[in-house]
Structure formats: C-alpha cells, structure tokens
Design a protein that fits this description.
The complex is a heterodimer. Chain A has 22 helices and eight strands. By secondary structure, chain A is an alpha/beta fold. Chain A has three domains: 83 residues, SRP54, nucleotide-binding domain (Four Helix Bundle (Hemerythrin (Met), subunit A)), CATH 1.20.120.140; 185 residues, P-loop containing nucleotide triphosphate hydrolases (Rossmann fold); 144 residues, Signal recognition particle, SRP54 subunit, M-domain (434 Repressor (Amino-terminal Domain)). Chain A has an eight-stranded mixed sheet, with helices on both faces. In chain A, strand 5, helix 10 and strand 6 form a beta-alpha-beta unit. Chain B is of the alpha/beta class. Helix content of chain B is 47%, strand content 13%. The longest helix of chain B is centred in the C-terminal third of the chain and has 17 residues. An eight-stranded mixed sheet of chain B has the order 5-4-6-3-7-8-9-10, sandwiched between helices. Chain B has a two-stranded parallel ribbon with strand order 1-2. In chain B, a hairpin with a 7-residue loop joins strand 9 and strand 10. Chain B has 13 helices and ten strands. In chain B, helix 2 packs across helix 3, helix 4 packs antiparallel against helix 5 and helix 7 runs parallel beside helix 8. Classes of the chains: A alpha/beta, B alpha/beta. The interface between A and B is large, with 50 and 48 residues. The structure holds guanosine-5'-triphosphate (2 copies) and magnesium ion (2 copies). One guanosine-5'-triphosphate sits at the interface of chains A and B. One magnesium ion binds next to helix 6 of chain A.
Chain lengths: 454, 336
Amino acid sequence: MFDQLSDRLQSTLSDVRKRGKLTEADVDKAMREIRLALLEADVNFKVVKAFTARVKERCLGADVMGSLNPGQQVVKIVNEELTELMGGAGRDLVFSNKGITVILMAGLQGSGKTTATAKLAMLLKKEGKSVALAACDVYRPAAIKQLETVGKRAGAVVYQQGTDADPVEIAAWALEKAKEEGREVLIVDTAGRLHIDSDLMDELARIRKRVKPHNVLLVVDAMTGQDAVGVAESFSEAAEFDGVIISKLDGDARGGAALSVKAVTGKPIIFASTGEKLEDFEHFHPDRMSSRILGMGDVLSLIEKAEEQVSEEEAEELQKKMSEGQFTLEDFLKQMRQIRKMGPIGNLLGMMPGMGAMKKLKDVDVDDGELDRVEAIILSMTPHERAMPQIIKGSRRRRIAEGSGTKIQQVNNLVKQFDQMKKLMKHMANGQMPDQNQMAKMMGQAQRPKIRRR
Amino acid sequence: MATTWNDILDLGDRVVPDTAPPLASEEETPKKMGAFRRLRESLSKSRRALTEEIGSSLFDRIDDETWERLEEALILADAGATTTAQVVEKLEHEVDSGAVPPDGAAIRERLIGLLTEIASTNRAPINLAQNPAVVLMTGVNGTGKTTSIGKIAWHLKNEFGLSVLLGAADTYRAAAAEQLSTWAERAGADLVRSNEGADPGSVAYDALSAAQARGSDVVIIDTAGRLHTQSNLMDELGKVKRVIDKQIPGAPHETLISIDATTGQNGLRQAKAFAEATDVSGVVLTKLDGTAKGGITLAIATELGIPVKLIGTGEALEDLRPFDPEDFARALLGEE
Ligand SMILES: Nc1nc2c(ncn2[C@@H]2O[C@H](COP(=O)(O)OP(=O)(O)OP(=O)(O)O)[C@@H](O)[C@H]2O)c(=O)[nH]1
Ligand SMILES: Nc1nc2c(ncn2[C@@H]2O[C@H](COP(=O)(O)OP(=O)(O)OP(=O)(O)O)[C@@H](O)[C@H]2O)c(=O)[nH]1
Ligand SMILES: [Mg+2]
Ligand SMILES: [Mg+2]
C-alpha cells in the first residue's frame, strides 16, 4: 500500500472493483507495472518474463470481491509467487557427521568473500566450533593480510603460505593442517574471479576437487544488475555451488539479483551479509526478501526485533493512541529510542515497511545522525509542545532550534513530518489496509496473529 | 577516433617530458585483448542470438517486436527501464516521422548515435592542471577504488612522467593501507599512510602537506568504501573534502566515484548520494572486462549529468583506459 508498486497497481486497477473480476486487459496492465517494478529491482529480464507469465495466469479471474482491493489482491499473489520462487523454507549449511567440515567461498571481485569468510567463522565460533581459514587469494594485493586481520577478529586461525604457492596446493595443505590440529571447520577464502576467466574458473574447480568441500558458497553482491544470471550460471557449472551468500544487503538495493540467481540455478540463499562489521551476518529468510524486492520492507524481521523490545501492554496502548490520533511527540521519542535499542538504525531501516511511506513523507530518511538530531529537537521542546506540536510557531520554533543546535527549517520539517505520520498511523491503526498496519508495528506494536511467520 | 589519454587529461601548462614513453594503444599491446573486443566476444558467445538480431535481421522488418528486442538489449545492459524507454521512444518517433529512414542499418546507426550522445553528456577532461592536482576517489564498497588509483598513478607516471603521491585515507577496512601500499610500489608512486582507525581527514591533510613539500604533481586520496545510505560515513567524506579544500583552496580538483559495471539500478542512487556529499566530477567504470556493460552510467549521465571518464578493464596496472562514448555505445549493443 505504501510502496510505489501497490500505489500504481491500485490506480491501474481502480475501476475493477465495480466489475468484480479481473479481466485479461486489467491483468495485462497490472503485469506491466509488476514487470517495471521487478526490472527496477534488478530482477533479470528473462526471469521477469517467466515470472509475470505465471502470475498472470493466477491473477486471471481471481476473486476481487473479498476484503482486498484488486491492487492489493495482485500484490498478494505476486508476493506469494515471489516467496515461492525465493525458495520456501530457509536452508542451512551441511556439516560432516564425522571429522572436519569444509566450506569453499567463491565469487566475483569485491563481492564480499573475505568479509563473509570471517563473518561465517565468527558465527560458527559462537556455536562453539573451532574454525580455521585458508588464505587462497594469492593475487589481490594484501588479501592475505586482510584475511589474517579479520580472521583474528573472528577468533579463527588463518593458514597461509604467502603469495608464491599455488592456491590449489594451499587449500590441500590447509586441509591437512586443519585435520591435524583437530579443527572442526575449514573455510577456504579464494580470489575474486570473473566467470568468463577460464583459467581462474578452472583453478576454482581444481580447488573444489582437491578439498571436496561440504559446502560451496557463492557470494553475490546485492547491488548486482542483470549480469547476476550469467555469473551464477557460470559459477554453478565450474564450482557447483550449493548455496548463496547475498552481501551488502544493508544498503538500499532491492536485491533482485538474489531472485535471479535462485531462479536460474535453483540454489538457495543461505546467508545475508548486512554490514562491514563481523556481526552483521544472518540466516537468510526467503519469505522476507520478496517484500523487499517489491519495495514493501522486511516487515517480519522488524516485527521480530520489535517484539523483543516492546511489551504487549505497551503495544496495545500505542495502538489505541494511534487509532485515535492521540500519538504525541513524547510517544514518538519513546518509540524511537526503543527502535534504536534494537541496533544501528541503518540496519533496521531496510527492514522497515514504512520506508516507502517515509520516503513519501519527504525523506525522513533516518540514519543515526539524523535520529540524534530528531532526539535533540524533541528534547528541546516543553512537554506541552511535545503533546501539541501544532502550537510550535515563530519564537518557539527559534528557541527549539537554538536549544537543539539545529536549524529552524529542521524543526519545521520534523513537526510537519510528524503530523503527516500521525495521519497515516491513524489510518493504518484503524485497519483500513489489511495486514498492512505495518507502520504501527514499526512504531513498536507487537506482532499480531494474522501475520504468520514461517 | 577513439578517445586517447591526451584527450581526457587536462595537464594545464605542465610540460610533459619527451622521455615519457609513447602512449600504449590497443595495437601495441596485442597480448591484451581490447576490453570491448573481449566484451563483444563473450557477448557473441553468450547472447549470440540477440546480437545477431540486433546486428542485422532485427531491423529488416520494423515492427513491435523490433522495438521490444531493442528494449530487451538495453535492459540487459542495465540501462534501466526509464533510460531504455526514453531512447527507444525517441528512435521510434524519429522513424515514424521520417527523420530516420526505415532502414535497418540507418536505424542502428542512429541508435548508436543516441546512446553516444547520452554517454557524452558533460564530457570533460580530468583536471590535473593545478600544482599539485588533487584527486579524491570515492565509491561504495568493493567497486575498485584502490585498484583504480594504482592504475591511474601508473599511467600518469609511466605515460606522462608525472610524480604521484597516494594518500591512504581508508583507515577502516582491514589491510586497506597495505593494499594501496603495494599499488604505490607497483606504480612508482609515493605513499602517505597512517594507522588503522586514524582520522581519514588527517591522513588527507598529511598527504597534501607531503605533496606540497615534495612538489608532487598529483595527489590521489583513497577513501574507505561506504554505502551511500550510511549518512554518518557520507558526512565523514564531506569532511575529508573540506579538509582538502581548506588546505588547498579549490581542491579536490577532481572527485571520482568508482562504479562497478555489474551494478544494476542501485548505481544511480550511489552516484546521486555521493554527488550530494562531494560534488562528484566523474565516474570510473570498473570491471568492464566481465560481461556486464555498465548501462547504469547512461542514467547517471542523463539524470545527474556526471560523465564517465575512465574505464577499468582488469586487475593489472595497465588495465585502465579513457572512456570513449561511441565505443561504449557499440559495446552496449554488442556491436563491432
Ligand atoms: N556495507 C557492507 N560492506 C560489505 C559487506 N560485505 C563486504 N563489504 C565490504 O565490501 C568490500 C569488499 O569486501 P571483501 O570481503 O574484501 O570482498 P572480496 O570478495 O573478498 O574481494 P576480492 O577478494 O577482491 O574479490 C569491503 O570494503 C568490505 O568491507 C556488507 O555486507 N555490507
Ligand atoms: N576484473 C576486474 N577486477 C577489478 C577491476 N577493478 C578492481 N577489480 C578488483 O575488484 C576487487 C576490489 O577492488 P578494490 O580496488 O579493492 O576496491 P575498493 O573499491 O577499493 O574496495 P573497498 O576499499 O573495500 O571498498 C579487487 O579484487 C580488484 O582486483 C577491474 O577493472 N576488472
Ligand atoms: Mg577477498
Ligand atoms: Mg579500497
């Protein structure tokens, strides 16, 4: 409802409701919007074609008399199909039931392999495993030093033989060493390589043959465009990878590449890398990715985090306030602080379903610095002003700006945005948009039963 | 005539010594396949059908499918739906109005012309006229900033005999300074670095001071990769820029953003955010030696007016070239 796509779908299909059924012409119009949205999200052209063909079939004659309007109906179908295509249930790594487990990392240059190697090591360390890393990138300047540095941070031992040895031999040697030392997991970091570089692709295939990894992981940058399909196909052929790590998901890329890779290779996306710090790494939730691709935010992840922070009572209280339009800046401040407790706002932001709406509210494009400002502004208001921001005019505005070290314009914007937000919340909290009172959840309301987690 | 290094560098009244080795050209380095040739070849392998169609039969009969196929080609090159629609619409209009004859070859050439025009938006040489000339390199993580700096330094030194100093203002990523240090060695450039975690602004400051003291011709400042959505880090970049400007008014004279050719539609947002933070003057389009064609730079040119200045075509020192709009346009369509 907030994102462009459903807005556009809604206006495209606005007159359908009267007629009650989606005709072929309606569906074609809707498919055009979906096609554009998916291309905008970098889903591969061919994948888009196949996908819209399937969605079209399901949409034809779909019942639009129910509680959803036709636009929402189509979004729902698209969302379901996307989730299905993204791979249903999440998958995990395979562990050897006797002896060492070997994981081989592969991918294009700069995709995030070395970082992901250390992140994975740290994750496994936390599960109590003893982890070793093999430095098989002998090409990129200082690649070994980089791995040693991040490996140390992760608490993993790094095996390296400098840059003169052959990567295949290093991998084999490291495996022996890891076994001798009784390590439980060996992660092999490799150099970035182009999928059309036959020498290096061959090297990768040879490493794979030599160390017989239990898991070969392809690291794919979330910002990748149409090329992702060709890359994934080539790596699938040479390295027969088992799963994918999608990296740099902390940005604002829609990540259509993830869908493309899954669609053409059938290989699941296992992990999401979401920042430069080693802890920014998590299991991938396919069902959450589809709404991101559609620009609808990662509702479920956010709800999960919100749940940890907000009690049921608080949530209900808040819901009530929202629906009655009684939500004040004081409440806002409280909620904001709670959200900030969940982690760096940059990471949460991508998950926020309201992002579409926020954008529309003239970029409350929140980051930590911005939030610091917002906090400062609210803190410089009197309780009365926080409860009734509409009284903030002239001299009050100046005083608040001065008190918070901001500009009058910024105070103005905040008050304006808050007002718009309040209206939106009221709208949403009153359940006018089925399963989409996400903004309320974003503001801290606990999960409601009708949204089901996997 | 393809764009040469001389075309894209403004060296001011610097005297380039005669002893500078001759410009490397594609003909003189036969062992290295031309970037675009390689691109074309891989294309002809993987997308032969499409290439052939665009190359010839596609325009034999002009109908809806012709335009659809054209759209497909541009979309697959990451040009994005908006740019694609604009270009194809314009071409179709010109054909309908009779401005372009409904003849396959003519339409094809006109299309190349349209794409070349877009790719030529705000073309300008890299400004190295000042003494020292200061170049700031920016971009999101892993796109090729550090590598491109190494290559630029090598070209300036090797082909123009300029003395170059590199400033390692990426104090964040593990082993970033070591990486740049290796490139400095390879390129024969000086290096100023600090400890991991040091303030990037102060490294930039030190680099400029050293360059002034030594009389270096060019200073290139490497910065840490950052996502354009991390506004604290974008602010930090703005700060680095201000430090530079304070020390040498008017500097940096060139602020480059590296865009990975495999980047999809997000590339436009990247360029936009970096332009807002630092006034980007040009794009280095990296990794064009793969199969991706970097079509997003068309949108960057149209919407932001930022031209591509250099292209990266591999991981070695010499794998960097001046950007040529027409070559780029042809490669985009998989043409000779
Ligand atoms: N924001 C963000 N940055 C990341 C993420 N993963 C990696 N990076 C950054 O991306 C850049 C490249 O990461 P590396 O791990 O060096 O990539 P690589 O694939 O090993 O690179 P090569 O070995 O050169 O092919 C570095 O600046 C990392 O800090 C992520 O999930 N989010
Ligand atoms: N094939 C190819 N690889 C490139 C090119 N430019 C850079 N690379 C590779 O891409 C990877 C990342 O390059 P870097 O120069 O470290 O990128 P960066 O932007 O400095 O990365 P961060 O500092 O981590 O953000 C390295 O493996 C480079 O060798 C290019 O033009 N072609
Ligand atoms: Mg690496
Ligand atoms: Mg770098």
